[in-house]
Each structure stands twice: as structure tokens, then as C-alpha cells.
Q: What sequence folds into this?
């Protein structure tokens, strides 16, 4: 919430309710996802219909402290008031909700997230763009899952074989989010142990889905030659920090302090590598399977505390034209990566609650629950961004935690959930 809580067109509190889920995750998208997964209700037998279960999964994320039946009561009372609750449907009990979640599975919720999650910032949204590019960031985080045999086998434990086993299996989630709104637009879910469990491996599932008008910002843990090429080939612009041991030959110093350089496939060695560097220095076209033209921005932040003090930060970008994005603006844009950390905190602390373990005792339900969190976070982030844009303020000034509290308080208002 802003300092005075007022936005264009009235107070934000007038527009926040449980209905935010229906507003930004519309019923037709829910029905399409259910149908695509073949999960439609086939007969009237008193079971919860799939579209209600989909919204229930999102509501479980919104009310993480409440038990199944309490969350169901909040939802069904509103649907009944609107005439959207069929008397043939069972009023759900805890056991009934568990069975309904199992029938639905995680695929429809995953597909729904893929259908509705898109950048929400507009041209007028503060801090959303650098020139023609929409600022986006990629990063990962972990969640604790209940310690069941199935979850342990599917997701594993961090630091396996390094002493005492942690209390809970951990689920790794890598997401791409919009820096201005914090809205997550793509995600990959996996474990923390075994082959393919790292952030880089999960990120590889996302790179081919980048959009041409994005500027994707990434920390130094994500760079490798193959991934850079995959991401760049989508047409999206890239701004990635790289580790100090990556060789970046200086081909030409530019007036803004950046310099032209070249990334070379690590399989190319010796004289062949030097020949590619010489060709890049001369401005020649390169075989992109072997080398890529890039631009490098290096800078220090001398007043940083801890291990980073005096450290040189090296950013590599596909934006090779200095006039399109001067080095100073790129350095400022890279700092927007921390907005992704803010979004992670909103998910893990303000929605789920600090130190809380997920509800689900099986891997399929864990994935379903996480996509429910992502959908709920997306809906709230979209609402905040829309309100802030209309008010002409930065979305950061609208406090996520307070918005969640308002939604939870107003959930009992039937008029707050459109049919």
C-alpha cells in the first residue's frame, strides 16, 4: 500500500478481494486447462467439479495458515451467494478435498499457469523497460516439502552425504519474472539432489520460451556457452553476469566505458580460437556455433559490505550497439535483478509464511501446490501493478504484504468474488 493508500479511481482497498483470483485467472482459462488435461467432470455424483478445485488450490495458497475445510468454506459460501454452487456437489471435507486434488493432479494447474501468466507492466509502468526491452530476471529458490518417502525420492535433500540429513526434502523452483511487477511468467520445478537438479538444468527448460522484447537478466551462476546460445537464439536480449574466470578479450574500448568482446565455444582451442578472436576484432561475421559477438560492462561497487567489497562485476550482453543501451544504464538495469529476490520473498514469506512447510505429501500434489502459489502470487502482483500504473507510481510502493492481508480480510464478502 502506498503511504496514503490512495490510487487513481479510488482506494486500492476498494478493488482487492478474493475475486482477484477470478479477475486475473478467468474461468474460461480454467475450463480450457481442465479440458486440455482431460479432467472434466463426467457425471453428477456429488464430487467437487474440477474448476472449483482449481480455484480451491489457489485459495489454499492464499490462506496458507488455514486448514482445508476453513479454506473451502470461504470459497463455497461465496459461490453459493452468487448461485454458482450446485446442490448436487458435496460440501467438501478435508478428506474430500484431498481426493479432489488427487483427481485433478498437477498438470491442469501447470497448464493454467502457462496460459495466464504473462508480463503485466505497461509502457507507463515505472521501471518496467530499458528502451525497447522489458526488464525480466531469472533465478531460483527452494521450498521445504513434507518428509514422506515419495517426496524424499522425488526431490531429495540438499547436501546429501555431507553429514546429518536435513529435516525436510527440498523442492527447487526456477522462475522468470517481470522486474517491475514481480509477476512470475514461467517456472520449472525439480529436486535438489541427483542429475539435472541444479538451477542451470531447470533454467534450460525455460530459455526457448523467451520473448523477443525481453531483456533477460541473470546472475553469474547461470552462464554457460550452450545456454547463452539457446537463450540468445530466441531473439531476446540478454544481460548476464559472468564469473571472473571467463576469458573476455577486449576487442574495442567504447566511449561509455564498455567494450566489444567475443564469446568462444570452449570446444574451440588454440589457433582456431585465436582466429575467431581476430575475426571478431575485425568486425567480421562469425559462425554462431563457434563464437558470438558481445559487449561487456565492468564496474565496481566499492561500498558493498562483506565478500563483495571492491569486487569487479562483469556483465555480458547481446546488445552490442552502445547507443541502444549505454553501459551505465545496463549496470543500473542489472540491479533490477534484485526485484526477483523481492518476488521470491513475497511467495515464501508473505503468502506461505516464514519457515512453513508445504502441505502436500506426494510429489504430484507438491507440484500442484506450488503452481497454485505461483498463480495466486501472479494475480496479486498483476492487481498491484495495474493499480500502481494507473496511479503513476512505482509498483514497489504498493506493499504486497498489506495487499494480501486486505484480500484475506475481505474474503468473506460474497460480492468480492465474481461468478
A:
Amino acid at each position: 500500500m502506498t503511504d496514503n493508500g490512495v490510487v487513481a479511481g479510488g482506494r486500492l482497498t476498494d478493488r482487492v478481494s478474493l475475486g482477484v483470483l477470478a479477475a486475473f485467472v478467468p474461468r474460461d482459462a480454467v475450463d480450457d486447462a481442465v479440458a486440455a488435461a482431460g479432467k472434466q467432470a463426467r457425471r453428477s455424483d456429488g464430487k467437487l467439479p474440477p474448476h472449483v478445485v482449481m480455484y480451491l488450490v489457489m485459495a489454499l495458497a492464499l490462506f496458507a495458515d488455514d486448514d482445508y475445510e476453513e479454506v473451502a468454506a470461504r470459497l463455497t459460501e461465496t459461490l453459493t451467494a452468487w448461485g454458482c454452487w450446485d446442490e448436487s456437489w458435496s460440501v467438501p471435507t478435508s478428506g474430500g478435498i484431498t481426493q479432489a486434488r488427487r483427481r485433478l493432479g498437477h498438470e491442469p494447474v501447470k497448464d493454467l499457469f502457462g496460459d495466464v501468466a504473462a508480463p503485466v507492466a505497461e509502457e507507463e509502468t515505472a521501471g518496467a523497460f530499458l528502451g525497447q526491452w522489458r526488464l525480466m530476471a531469472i533465478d531460483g529458490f527452494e521450498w521445504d516439502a513434507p518428509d514422506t518417502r515419495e517426496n524424499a525420492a522425488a526431490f531429495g535433500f540438499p547436501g546429501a552425504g555431507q553429514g546429518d540429513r536435513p529435516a525436510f526434502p527440498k523442492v527447487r523452483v526456477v522462475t522468470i519474472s517481470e522486474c517491475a511487477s514481480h509477476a512470475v511468467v514461467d517456472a520449472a520445478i525439480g529436486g535438489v539432489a541427483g542429475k539435472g537438479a541444479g538451477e542451470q538444468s531447470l533454467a534450460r527448460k525455460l530459455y526457448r520460451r523467451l520473448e523477443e522484447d525481453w531483456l533477460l537478466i541473470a546472475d553469474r551462476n547461470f552462464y554457460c556457452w550452450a545456454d547463452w546460445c539457446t537463450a540468445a537464439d530466441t531473439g531476446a536480449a540478454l544481460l548476464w553476469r559472468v564469473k571472473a574466470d571467463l576469458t573476455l578479450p577486449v576487442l574495442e574500448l567504447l566511449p561509455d566505458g564498455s567494450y566489444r568482446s567475443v564469446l568462444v565455444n570452449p570446444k574451440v582451442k588454440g589457433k582456431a580460437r585465436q582466429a575467431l578472436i581476430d575475426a571478431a576484432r575485425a568486425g567480421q561475421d562469425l559462425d554462431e556455433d563457434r563464437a558470438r559477438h558481445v559487449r561487456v560492462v565492468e564496474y565496481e561497487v566499492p561500498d558493498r559490505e562483506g565478500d563483495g567489497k571492491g569486487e569487479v562485476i562483469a556483465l555480458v550482453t547481446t546488445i552490442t550497439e552502445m547507443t541502444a543501451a549505454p553501459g551505465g544504464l545496463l549496470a543500473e538495469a542489472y540491479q533490477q535483478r534484485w526485484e526477483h529476490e523481492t518476488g521470491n520473498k513475497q511467495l515464501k514469506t508473505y503468502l506461505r509464511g516464514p519457515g512453513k512447510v508445504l502441505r502436500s505429501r506426494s510429489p504430484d500434489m507438491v507440484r500442484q501446490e506450488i503452481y497454485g502459489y505461483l498463480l495466486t502470487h501472479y494475480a496479486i502482483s498483476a492487481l498491484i501493478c495495474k493499480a500502481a500504473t494507473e496511479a503513476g507510481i512505482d509498483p514497489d510502493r504498493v506493499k504486497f504484504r498489506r495487499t494480501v492481508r486486505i484480500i484475506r480480510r475481505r474474503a468473506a464478502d460474497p460480492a468480492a468474488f465474481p461468478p
Summary: Residues 363-391 form the longest helix (29 residues). The longest strand covers residues 133-144. The chain is about 35% helix and 15% strand.
